[in-house]
Automatic annotation (TrEMBL):
Domain of life of the native organism: Archaea
Keywords: Transferase
A Pfam cross-reference name: Acetyltransf_1
Organism of derivation: Halorubrum sodomense
Protein name in UniProt: Acetyltransferase (GNAT) family protein
All residue ranges annotated as the N-acetyltransferase domain in the record: 10-196
Keyword Ribosomal protein recorded: no
Single Gene Ontology MF annotation: acyltransferase activity, transferring groups other than amino-acyl groups
InterPro entries recorded: Acyl_CoA_acyltransferase, GNAT_dom
Length: 345
């Protein structure tokens, strides 16, 4: 595959495990002081995977097309040599200057993630070529839509997504309740968490909720971290069967629910932090929000989590309901964009 728009010197190919060092070199400082980039940590697994539902690609340029000297401590000639194992010595040299992964989430939904371009290679059409490869991969597997997630402050990333065919879909923010085993007992609200929540009742609530409208029906995917896909009745039933569905109700009906998607562990500075992530939350009003956050706090504590994150719609109502209940929220929202793949390439 070559780059679009006449950028024929850009070649996009499937990633190899031997590409990991080159990718790590240009992604180690992607976000500066904001936070660490996860790509150096996960790319070796991406490149080494034989999962047919994942496609990982790198973009390359001839070594003389980019000058990487002085970037991130690299020296001239620090380029990845094409090929690994037998025959590598006869391979043409190439500079690995970008990466991306596409993932199938369902029969009709795909997700694009991890697009990175070496600063030394900007202006060569690398991002466009990578995006085209990911969208082609998704289209070939029958996907009708491919979505991605972009930090709201990443104006360059937002512009790149629009340039290659992604359109705005929704935005969300993470609420961050503190795990607390006594949260429910201290709530003082006339709403109770349900011991055995009915997924059909939760689905009925979701179907008629502002949260569903604002999120366009999306929630965090149960299998792929940091990806969003359509929340379905079947997913709620699975969550209920696995004790991951949390709901609160008044005397007559469900007033709110949340779904625990996963609990992850992250080690930093010799300490391990467990985070419970809730793929979506929806509620009826201010009091229901408070009762639901209390139920989530208790559930996170029961899961032995040190922290919790809850995806909520980025609206004045949802964020202010959260703040009024003294629950912290992330400083900035995230944007989800989507590309329609039904019209061909």
């Amino acid at each position: 595959m070559t780059g679009a728009g006449g950028e024929s010197d850009v070649v996009v190919r499937e990633a190899r495990p031997a590409d990991a060092d080159a990718v790590a070199a240009f992604t180690r400082d992607t976000w500066g002081e904001r936070h660490d980039d996860y790509i150096p940590r996960v790319f070796p697994d991406w490149a080494g995977s034989d999962d047919p539902d994942c496609g990982t690609f790198v973009a390359t340029l001839p070594p003389d097309a980019v000058d990487i000297s002085g970037l991130d401590g690299r020296e001239p000639g620090d380029t990845h040599v094409a090929g690994d194992g037998a025959g590598a010595a006869d391979a043409e040299p190439e500079a690995v200057v970008g990466c991306i992964q596409a993932v199938s989430l369902s029969e009709w939904e795909a997700w694009g993630q991890g697009i990175r371009v070496d600063p030394a290679a900007r202006g060569h059409g690398v991002g466009t070529a990578l995006s085209a490869a990911a969208l082609d991969w998704a289209r070939d597997r029958g996907a009708a839509v491919c979505r991605n997630m972009v930090f709201s402050w990443n104006v360059m990333g937002l512009g790149q997504s629009r340039a290659v065919g992604f359109e705005p879909e929704t935005e969300f923010r993470f609420a961050e309740p503190e795990p607390d085993p006594d949260a429910i007992d201290d709530s003082g609200v006339d709403l109770e968490p349900l011991v055995d929540p009915d997924p059909n009742a939760a689905w009925a609530f979701w179907s008629d909720s502002d949260a569903r409208d604002r999120l366009r029906g999306l929630a965090l995917d149960p299998d792929e971290p940091w990806a969003c896909s359509q929340l379905t009745r079947e997913r709620l039933a699975t969550a209920a069967a696995e004790d991951r569905l949390i709901a609160v109700a008044g005397p007559r009906s469900v007033a709110g629910f949340a779904v625990r998607t996963r609990v992850t562990e992250r080690e930093a500075d010799g300490e391990t932090t467990r985070t419970a992530t809730y793929g979506v939350a929806a509620w009826r009003d201010l009091d229901a929000a408070g009762a639901l956050y209390d139920a989530v706090a208790a559930d996170a504590a029961a899961a032995d989590a040190d922290a919790a994150r809850v995806l909520i719609p980025e609206t004045v109502e949802h964020v202010s309901d959260t703040g009024a209940n003294r629950v912290p929220v992330a400083a900035e929202p995230d944007f989800v964009m989507s590309a329609d793949l039904t019209g061909g390439s």
